[in-house]
Structures are given as structure tokens and as C-alpha cells.
Write a structure and sequence with these properties.
single chain, alpha/beta, 2 domains, five-stranded parallel beta sheet, binds zinc ion
Length: 510
């Protein structure tokens, strides 16, 4: 038979569309042509495949070889098609039985020696392959990624000879053993909350933010531990569910990071402020996920928030509302999930010492104004809580307080508050739409009047008011209360510091 068909998978966003590799050998001058929208790395595949086959002891047919990657309108990138192309040539030339491949899909980049190398986006392909009812063959280096997906039948291979051995019956491959989701990677390597000394307000803010999934902005002079506070967040968040862990692992697989060390821990990403738009939200010719997608189901921490390019920050608005990012390229649209919790930190002014008792601030008023203007009102509106962090006295730093609880104690309360929210409305308070707010959050008459007075005085936007109500609802949930009363609202309003700074700016504060 001079025609062979091998099944494999391409990559589009975090999906793995099916690709069929058709190989035809015909008479004529020896040549090899790949058709079906291949990119450079795929076109170079012919040289790798030829060397790998020869070095593995096979014969490279001296005939006219045509390889078609179907469907033709799907762009194909990377070295992932090397293995199916090699198997196709071997099957078409009768060196391995061609009828064995119908129930299999495979992918892998070939080294010139015939070894099989790591490729990206293996986990989504394994999931899709399992749904199609086939068995997947992946590079050994990718085995860690697929261990999380319990149901699939997967073989991991390290060389071309191992694959052909399996099909000729020389040496049957062993299936990849799934890991036990009950025990794997439940441990957390985030910082424990007990490292935060003093700072009762910061602890409280972190607890509320964790309980309701709220965005949180710390601002204060350098050296007050803003970054440390943010890094404690993963430790007081519940571990991922199995479904979420697979989703997050699929994203890391697509990004080419391989397997996650602690697959059930929520991701914590803190990109540098020089990050480009593509690095932050994703993109490129063949769109890859950015930091906001890598933070899906976890935390995105933006340190030195005003130092980020304003255009880049503006791009966060859409995913903050919809939980996904849509990247449009000439021919196709790619969607990546981006349901993350935003933590941010900033100095109060460019030099950092505005309002500090020890250091005088050396900034001119217009510099401070320009610095703060970089944060647009709409972005600030989308962060539920703002917290001013001040420097601690030496005595507090040296004598840990009695109330310094560990992450485990706080996590127990967070879990309880989250349970209340899911029982009531099947989602976290931070995710309630304004219509759902009306339905699930009922304010008493006195509370409503009181809140209206405050809104008027501070000149808050309607979006900011909704944020206040959501945070207040979480505070009530943390205190196990169905009713929302004035102290809950008052505490939530206290976390809108910067709104007040903005309204004060009209009186010359900024
Ligand atoms: Zn300053």
C-alpha cells in the first residue's frame, strides 16, 4: 500500500482540533512535499524525519512523497507533526503495518537520532483524543502532564523505535499510570500568613478578598511588605477542584510549560511591570496564552501597578468583566479563559514616601498627579478593595502579635464563607452581576438610607457602589450572617480608600 493515514492534533487556543496526516508514495523523481498550510517548523520537519528514520535503522523511500496535513485551513506550527509524518512514511512504504493506526493518535518532535522530544499543548490533545475514543501516543517528556487526566488511555514514548516496536509487536508499550488526584499536589508551597507581623488590617483584607474572590490593591511606601502580603494569598485559597486543575494544567501545557509541580494549587502569577501587552494578555502569530490566562482560577499580582504601560492595563478591563480574553488575528479568533483574581500594589507617589512620617516626599504635585492618572478610573473601579499599608514600628516587628494566625486557621473561615456563597447563589460574591445583586443581597431601609448618604458625600460611581455591596456581602458571610448590617457596609466602604482620594482631589489633595 502506498497510502497511509495517521491521526494527530493541532493547536488552536486551548483546543486541540483533529489533524489527519496523509502520506502518499508515488513513482517519479525522489522528493518530499508537505501541503496543508504548514509553517516553517513543519516544513523543516522533512529533514528531521529523514535523519531520524535513517538513524533508527529504517529505509527512507527513494520515491515521490506527498504529505497532506488536513484540514488545510488550520495553521500548523511546531515540530509536533514529525512523529505522525514519520509513521505515515513508514506505513506507506510497508515498513510497519498500516492498518494498526486507526485507533491511535500521536504527536512528538523527532531528534535527528530518532529520539522523541517534548512538545507543547499535549494535555488538551489527550483530552480531545479520549473523547474521540482513541488512544494517544505522546513524548515521554510530556508524561507528567497527562498523569492528571485519569480516564484517558495514553502511551509515552522516548524514541521512534519504541513506537514502531509497539505496532510490529516487538515490544508492547506500558500505559501511563494516572496519579491519584486525592493525594497528588494538595500541599501548598505559598507563604504562610504567619510571616505577616502586626498588620491586622492587611490580614483582614486578604481574608475578605480570599473569601469572596475580590480584587485587592495595596498602596503605601516601599518596604512595608506589600509584595509579601500578596504572596500569602494562595495559602488561604481553597485548592483547585479536579476539573479546575485539569483546565489549569491544559493552559500550562499549551503555553509549553509542561506539567505543574503542584497541580491542585491555585496559580499565582506576578509579571514584571515591563511586560508587553502580548506577554500579559496573550497573542502572537499563533496566539499563545498570556499571564492573565496562566492566572486562570488563581491570582494575578501586579506589583508597581502605575509602572505598567497604561494601554496594557486598559486591556485588563474586558477579561476582568467577562473572565476570558478574545484575541483576533487576520483569519481567526482565539479565546482564552482568564478568570483570575487581581491583586495589585503601588507606591503613593513616584518617590514612594508621600505621607510617610520618617522620609519627606520629594515629588512635585504635578508628578504625583501624573503618576496616579496612569490608573484610569474604570480600572480602579474594577478593583473591589483598596488598602493603605503603613510602616510598622520596630517594636511590632520584633514582637509578633498574639493574633497572628496561620494560613490554615484563616483558610477554614474562608472555606466556610465560600460554602455559604455557593449554597445561596452558586458563585462567589465578586462574580454577582448587578441584577443578581438585587436578587440575593437585600438591604434594610435604614441601611439603604445610610448608604445613599455616604455615596452622595463621596461621589462614588455606581460601579463602585456595587463593589461595596459585594464586599459587604462577603464580610457578612464571614461572620455567618444572612442579614447585611451597617458595620458590614462600613467596613466595605473603608476599603474604598482611593475613591475618597479621588473625590478629595477635587479639593486639592492630588
Ligand atoms: Zn513622593
Amino acid at each position: 500500500m502506498s497510502l497511509a493515514v495517521i491521526h494527530t492534533r493541532g493547536r488552536h487556543g486551548i483546543d486541540a482540533p483533529p489533524v489527519t496526516v496523509e502520506v502518499h508514495l508515488s513513482n517519479g523523481l525522489p522528493s518530499l512535499n508537505i501541503v496543508g498550510l504548514p509553517e516553517t517548523a513543519v516544513r523543516e520537519s522533512k529533514d528531521r524525519v529523514r535523519s531520524a528514520m535513517i538513524n533508527a535503522g529504517f529505509e527512507f523511500p527513494a520515491r515521490r512523497i506527498t504529505i497532506n496535513l488536513a484540514p488545510a485551513d488550520l495553521p500548523k506550527e511546531g515540530g509536533r507533526f514529525d512523529l505522525p509524518i514519520a509513521l505515515g512514511i513508514l506505513a506507506a512504504s510497508g515498513q510497519v503495518p498500516a492498518d494498526k493506526f486507526t485507533d491511535y493518535e500521536c504527536m512528538g518532535e523527532l531528534a535527528l537520532s530518532g529520539e522523541i522530544r517534548f512538545v507543547s499543548a499535549v494535555l488538551p490533545a489527550v483530552i480531545a483524543c479520549h473523547k474521540a475514543g482513541r488512544t494517544m501516543i505522546v513524548p515521554q517528556a510530556n508524561a507528567g502532564e497527562v498523569m492528571l487526566y485519569q480516564e484517558a488511555k495514553v502511551f509515552a514514548v522516548d524514541s521512534l523505535l519504541a513506537v514502531t516496536g509497539h505496532f510490529t509487536g516487538l515490544k508492547v508499550l506500558q500505559q501511563v499510570e494516572p496519579v491519584d488526584a486525592g493525594t497528588a499536589g494538595r500541599s501548598s508551597d505559598g507563604r504562610d500568613l504567619s510571616v505577616l507581623r502586626g498588620q491586622p488590617q492587611a490580614r483582614r483584607a486578604l481574608e475578605i478578598a480570599a473569601a469572596g474572590g475580590h480584587g485587592l490593591l495595596f498602596y503605601g511606601p516601599p518596604g512595608t511588605g506589600k509584595t509579601l502580603m500578596a504572596s500569602c494569598m494562595p495559602g488561604i485559597l481553597p485548592t483547585l477542584t479536579e476539573q479546575e486543575a485539569i483546565e489549569v494544567s491544559a493552559i500550562y501545557s499549551v503555553a509549553g510549560y509542561g506539567s505543574r509541580k503542584v497541580p491542585f494549587q491555585r496559580p499565582f502569577r506576578s509579571p514584571h511591570h515591563s511586560a508587553s501587552a502580548v506577554a500579559l494578555v496573550g497573542g502572537g502569530a499563533c496566539p499563545k496564552p498570556g499571564e492573565i490566562t496562566l492566572a486562570h482560577h488563581g491570582v494575578l499580582f501586579l506589583d508597581e501597578l502605575p509602572e505598567f504601560d497604561r494601554r496594557v492595563l486598559e486591556m485588563l478591563r474586558q477579561p476582568l468583566e467577562s473572565g476570558e480574553i478574545c484575541i483576533s488575528r487576520a483569519a481567526r479568533q482565539t479565546r482564552f479563559p482568564a478568570n483570575f483574581q487581581l491583586l495589585a500594589a503601588m507606591n503613593p507617589c513616584p518617590c514612594g514616601y508621600l505621607g510617610d512620617k520618617k522620609h519627606p516626599c520629594s515629588c512635585r504635585p504635578d508628578q504625583i498627579q501624573r503618576y496616579r492618572r496612569k490608573l484610569s478610573g474604570p480600572l480602579l473601579d474594577r478593583i473591589d478593595m483598596h488598602l493603605e499599608v503603613s510602616r510598622l514600628s520596630a517594636s511590632v516587628l520584633l514582637n509578633p502579635g498574639e493574633t497572628d494566625e496561620s494560613s490554615g486557621v484563616v483558610l477554614a473561615r474562608v472555606l466556610k464563607a465560600r460554602h455559604r456563597q455557593y449554597t445561596r447563589q452558586s458563585k462567589l460574591n465578586s462574580q454577582l452581576s448587578s441584577r443578581e445583586l438585587d436578587r440575593y443581597v437585600v438591604l434594610g431601609r435604614a441601611e439603604k438610607m445610610w448608604l445613599m448618604g455616604i455615596i452622595e458625600r463621596l461621589g462614588l460611581s455606581s460601579r463602585a457602589v456595587h463593589r461595596i455591596i459585594r464586599v459587604a456581602r462577603t464580610i457578612a458571610d464571614l461572620s455567618d450572617s444572612d442579614e447585611m448590617v451597617k458595620p458590614h457596609l462600613a467596613e466595605a466602604i473603608a476599603f474604598r480608600n482611593l475613591d475618597r482620594a479621588v473625590s478629595d482631589s477635587r479639593n486639592g489633595f492630588l
